[in-house]
Write a structure and sequence with these properties.
The chain is an alpha+beta fold. The protein folds into 2 domains: 35 residues; 152 residues, PEBP-like (Phosphatidylethanolamine-binding Protein), CATH 3.90.280.10. Helices cover 16% and strands 27% of the residues. It contains 3 helices and 9 strands. It has a 6-stranded mixed sheet, covered by helices on one side. The longest helix has 17 residues. It is globular, with a radius of gyration of 20 Å. It starts with a helix and ends in a 7-residue tail after the last strand.
């Protein structure tokens, strides 16, 4: 195709997508009821979203990074965090490595400080069976692992004991999620010195 034809097709696609905006927002042919566009903004000064996780925040003794949460819906009462490594499949299944769970983080806190959680927050069981942050620990290799902090804004606190894992947390959050965001860090271990 010639350049002019490609530009015309691209312009028609853009007009079609933008023109669908109002119908999409009003539910005309758009996503199912209850669909929400991303609102929640998550930021950290530990590393940039999509960046390399510094060694300080890695491994079993790593420090839990600080995050700020902004632009949450007015009905947000608390936050929950699920931190996991997307690049590992366990036992031939679809589960990945769960590094950390936390919930009942008060909305008024506006985030979490480095190395701790606000009063009232609860930590669940990670893959090691501990109620603690477990930093990235991918071995040396040709590629980075992708570690995702999933942050959920919830309309209520959760009545869960600290013995709960990811399945129980997800079940408890059902019907209470008012916004969600993700923050990604990449990590791979250093090759041993030769």
């Amino acid at each position: 195709m010639r350049t002019m034809e490609l530009r015309t097709i691209a312009a028609l696609l853009v007009v079609g997508v933008l023109g669908a905006g109002p119908a999409f927002a009003q539910g005309g042919g758009g996503p199912p009821p209850g669909f929400r566009l991303a609102q929640l903004v998550v930021q950290s000064n530990a590393f940039e979203d999509g960046g390399i996780v510094p060694v300080k925040y890695t491994g079993r003794d790593g420090v839990q990074p600080a995050f700020t949460f902004t632009n949450a819906p007015a009905e947000t009462a608390s936050y929950a965090i699920i931190f996991h490594d997307l690049d590992v499949g366990l036992n031939g299944g679809t589960d990945d490595v769960l590094h950390w769970l936390a919930w009942n983080i008060p909305a008024a806190a506006g985030g979490i400080p480095e190395g701790s959680l606000p009063a009232g927050a609860v930590q669940g069981k990670n893959i090691a069976g501990q109620n603690a942050y477990f930093g990235p620990g991918a071995p040396p290799g040709p590629r980075y692992h992708h570690y995702v902090f999933e942050i959920y804004a919830l309309s209520a606190n959760l009545d869960l004991p600290n013995t709960a894992g990811r399945a129980e947390l997800l079940a408890a959050m059902a019907g209470k999620v008012v916004a969600k965001a993700a923050y990604v860090g990449r990590f791979k271990g250093a090759a041993p010195a030769q």
